[in-house]
Amino acid sequence: MTWKQRLDIGWRLARPFTLMASVVPVLVGTGLALTKASFHTSLFISFFLACLLIQAATNMFNEYFDFRRGLDSKEMVGIAGAIVRDGVRPRTVLGLAWLFILIATGLGVYICMMTTWWIAVVGAACIGVAYFYSGGPKPLAYTPFGELAASVAMGPVIVLLAYYIQTDEITARATIASLPIGLLIGALLLGNNIRDLDHDIAGGRRTIAILLGKAGGRILFAVVYAITYLIVLALIAIGQLTPWALLVLLTVPSAYSVVRRWFQSSDAQQMQLAFKGTSMQLLRFGALMFVGLLVSVWIPVR
User: Fold this and answer.
1) How far from 121 is each of 99, 174, 285, CA to CA, in Å?
2) How confident is the model at residue 79 (pLDDT cuts 50, 70, 90)?
3) pLDDT in tens, 154-168
4) If you count Cβ atoms within 10 Å of the first and of the last residue's Cβ in the chain, which end, N or C, has fewer?
5) Phi-psi region for residue 239, left (φ > 0), alpha (ψ -120 to 50) or beta?
6) CA–CA distance from 199 to each of 7, 211, 253 (Å)?
7) Contact by Cβ (8 Å): 127, 137
8) How many CB atoms lie within 10 A of CB 290?
9) Residue 76's CB: how many other CB atoms inside 10 A?
């Protein structure tokens, strides 16, 4: 196997489209901190890398445990399945996941030394969610609580941690502002489970998408998107977000397009494209919110 092939498999193991769920909350939390004129480059880089590594490790745990439970096959849609498709040894996948967790823990130690050791408690809880999402005797991914637990751990928790390590405080404003990000990450996970619904039913899972069915899951997806934008408008109206955050409204047309694609997709291949669109929508929304927060520092609205 060539190095190019190894890198390609490693890239697919990390599942890059899911990594937006780590990138966006770090950016938004840091953007909120910048409005308080607070920024520490080393802490930002360390936390950003730690979040990416934990997210990638989560995906590898999922790859490993799905294989162990006999869920993965060569015919499945998406970029998962490096073990069954590419012949990667299961122990290699599991070992790489723990290596990523170890590196992230080292970065976390540095962050704690620069801030507070209480972050270690929250970080350990997040790593616990990363592992038990698909590992352990009763994985979260097999219950209706998987989407909720992951969206909270990867949304508000990461936003607030990114905010705290820069400002040394947690505010009601930052907490409320993290909600739209948590909702969009929840939508990303919901979309993933809508795509994999038939596959997950065969594997004995009971996700929200399975409980609601494809039609109900799609309706919930649309409702989550609508609520996300309504919360942003409400936060701006009550002065908890800068009016520059209205930049996120530029993503409304693409949000409509993503929702319509989910409703029009009839097979797994089409839903995979819808899932990629959902990931990019999260990135567009988060990037524009970050830009809005950054601009508000340079050009305050009076």
Assistant:
1) 20, 20, 30
2) low
3) 889 999 999 999 999
4) C
5) left
6) 27, 14, 31
7) no
8) 22
9) 16
Residue with tokens 């988060």: 286
Cα–Cα dist 208/245, whole Å: 31
108: Cβ–Cβ under 8 A, 6 or more apart, which residues? 50, 119, 120, 123
Token readout for 201 is: 């039913």
* Residues comprising the chain, all counted: 302
CB 45 within 8 A of CB 30: no
Write the pLDDT tens digit of every residue in 190-235.
998 898 888 788 778 888 999 999 899 999 999 999 999 999 999 9
**Rounded distance between C-alpha atoms, residue 276 and residue 150, angstroms:** 18
CA-based radius of gyration for the chain: 19
3-state secondary structure of 86: helix
Residue 70 to residues 84, 199, 200, 209, Cα–Cα distance (Å) = 10, 11, 11, 21
CB 282, CB 24: distance < 8 Å: yes
pLDDT tens digits, one per residue of 94-105: 999 999 999 999
Q: Which long-range contacts (CB under 8 A, 24 or more apart) does 250-255 make?
A: 250/288, 251/281, 251/284, 251/285, 251/288, 254/280, 254/281, 254/284, 255/225, 255/229, 255/281, 255/285
> Of 132, 3, 11, 17, nearest to 82 (Cα)?
11
